[in-house]
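Summary of Year 1 activities. Much of the first year was spent building the evaluation harness for sequence design. The harness presents a backbone, in tokenized form, and records the residue chosen at every position. We chose the following record to illustrate the format because it has been used consistently in internal testing since the harness was completed.
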């Protein structure tokens, strides 16, 4: 009994390490994409800071979805592309709003125009959003195989319902 529990704990930790590692790699690539695109749009193309943040986040979010669906959480149950993508977009929409609010707060009420200050605000919003996204993806988007919500819905048997 103890050997099985120990084996299960090892498997759980290995799986969590795999998820965190892959999430980190996908996140790092998308972080560079987000920060780089924000810099290009704001500094070189003269796009407004909030619009630059919106565009850079939308591009990096799309790339992140495919990376997470097919690598970071590839071993988790599939509950339908529409369901997963809808939740993924909703979660990223909320963290996008958080990021926009942080950049807006630094740019307008605080009056900061410098690229470095705005980039620090951008990076801070990305860091906070990353933690929130990882926890949310594991909880609501990419479900564990044994999760009752991951089971495909089938016809209800009258024998079992009684």
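For this record, the design step produced the sequence shown next.
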């Amino acid at each position: 009994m103890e050997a099985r529990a120990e084996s299960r704990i090892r498997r759980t930790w290995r799986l969590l390490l795999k998820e965190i590692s892959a999430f980190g790699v996908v996140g790092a690539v998308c972080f560079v994409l987000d920060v780089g695109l924000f810099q290009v749009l704001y500094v070189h193309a003269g796009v407004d800071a909030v619009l630059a943040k919106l565009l850079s986040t939308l591009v990096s979010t799309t790339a992140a979805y495919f990376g997470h669906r097919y690598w970071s959480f590839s071993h988790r149950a599939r509950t339908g592309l529409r369901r997963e993508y809808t939740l993924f977009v909703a979660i990223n929409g909320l963290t996008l709003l958080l990021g926009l609010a942080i950049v807006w707060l630094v740019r307008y009420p605080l009056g900061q125009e410098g690229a470095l200050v705005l980039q620090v605000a951008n990076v801070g919003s990305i860091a906070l959003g990353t933690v929130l996204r990882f926890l949310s993806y594991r909880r609501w988007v990419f479900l564990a195989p044994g999760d009752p919500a991951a089971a495909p819905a089938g016809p209800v048997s009258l024998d079992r319902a009684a």
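The first helix runs from residue 2 to 44. Quantitative recovery figures across the full test set are reported in Table 2.
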